[in-house]
Design goal:
Blueprint lengths: L3 H14 L4 H7 L24 H10 L4 H8 L11 E8 L20 E6 L7 E4 L14 E5 L9 E6 L4 E9 L3 E6 L5 E6 L3 E10 L2
Parallel strand pairs: 1-3
Antiparallel strand pairs: 1-2, 3-4, 4-9, 5-6, 5-9, 6-7, 7-8
Helix pairs in contact: 1-4
Length: 212
């Protein structure tokens, strides 16, 4: 029989595995950001509060995680997902990005890249884009740091940054992705749905983390 502690352990580890906080996981699944807060796991009178089956179903769908995978995260004998304590990541300001700032796979190339110390990211090849100008208000606030991982697979509902073969940079959320085309909700004060043919995309990289 599963315990209250095991279920919540699974939720926390699922968030960690996807580079999210518990509130970030809730938001990705379309839930209230406070749904998985630690303060909500026990009622005011000390009774245990369990996550609802609908909430669990939504976070599994949002992260494309099977129930079998979730059970492995619940197991207290299994190793928790580990994060690197601290890494030195490449960083560039959005306003400084040029066409040759990235290689053909979306990794740092030429340009005004800096090295910064950054904690708690699994991918040592991830990099940071500093949003030093407007243009992603719905996505995150100007001044936010966006940690990008070209090594990670991209799935529906993932926040991404991509570059077209014409050199344009696009930030948005994947709505649908097939072998022929990619549909995403572009960021901005008035978000637009953008449909791009796969052949017109130079690279697309998943955003692991956004500072708030």
């Amino acid at each position: 029989m599963l315990s209250h502690e095991q279920i919540w352990r699974g939720v926390d580890r699922l968030a960690l595995r996807n580079g999210l906080s518990a509130s970030g996981l809730a938001k990705r699944a379309g839930l209230d950001p406070t749904t998985f807060n630690k303060s909500k796991r026990v009622t005011q009178d000390g009774k245990q509060r369990w996550p609802g089956t609908e909430s669990l179903s939504k976070i599994l769908e949002a992260t494309q995680t099977s129930m079998a995978e979730f059970v492995t995260l619940i197991d207290d004998t299994a190793s928790a997902p580990q994060r690197v304590a601290e890494l030195r990541l490449k960083s560039i300001r959005l306003s400084r990005i040029a066409e040759d700032s990235f290689d053909k796979s979306g990794f740092p190339n030429a340009g005004e890249w800096e090295d910064v110390e950054f904690p708690a990211i699994e991918d040592p090849r991830a990099y940071i884009v500093e949003l030093d100008r407007d243009g992603a208000q719905v996505f995150c606030r100007p001044g936010s740091l966006v940690v990008v991982s070209p090594s990670s697979s991209v799935r529906r509902h993932d926040r991404v940054i991509l570059q077209t073969r014409q050199g344009s940079l696009v930030l948005g959320t994947i709505k649908r992705k097939t072998a022929q085309q990619c549909t995403l909700i572009e960021t901005g004060s008035q978000p637009d749905e953008v449909v791009l043919a796969t052949k017109d995309i130079a690279w697309v990289a998943r955003i692991l983390w956004v500072s708030q």
